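User: Second chain of the day. Same drill as before.
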Amino acid sequence: MTVAFVLHRADGAPVSTSFRKGAFGKDDPFARHREVAWEGPDSMIAGRVSFIGKFDVASFPHIETIVVVEGELILETTGEPPVVLGAQAGAVIGAGTGLRVRAESRTRFVFCAAACEKPSTRGVIRLRADADFKPSGSLPAEVLLSPAPQCRSDNVFADDGAQYLAGTWDSTPYHRVVRPHRVNEFMHLVAGGVRYAAPDGSVLSLGTGDAIFVPQGAPIGWESSERVAKFYVVQSVQASIERA
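Assistant: Same format as last time:
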């Protein structure tokens, strides 16, 4: 199993991840532009998009979290101010949302999307680096190789049917053993850097502006020496099978 899929490097360095062209369902509005890095058995997908143009969607066909890495993406819904996403800004689009999507020049973003049969949250919800953080659970002592960190989160989007949760999280430095990842997780670092360890002893280093996807069950460790903050998506699943 691949431990982690790097979706973007902020410094422009090439990534080792293999991407394939592919739509997320027959009604995917980004079908011609989507590059898939990972697709799982529980109707979740992660990758990147390069897009310019405009389209209207009467009912967005799935849940999608977007973080722009280059250019500017504008998301407009009736009766609400436009959500303008520049580089390193993100938002969640709820399934069933009617919206217009615009990019006046070439725009690139990373994404994590999930199918949703019965949407519970519609609209466009912005992700914020200056989030309204609240204390969240730390890690059990048996997995830590350092003192326990202080963790905070701001969960801004949840859909129980899709088991999809998105928001912003931060933590003080800590070091954790390599263990199976408990969820499918998309991460875009908005502050700090992390060293992810694999079972073979290799280390993958990511910094501010980089994006990664870790499948549920992938064995991975964590080491940080500074405050780390990230936009995230997690999906709790019963089992994981690598497809891409």
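The chain has no helices and 20 strands.

User: Great, on to the next one.
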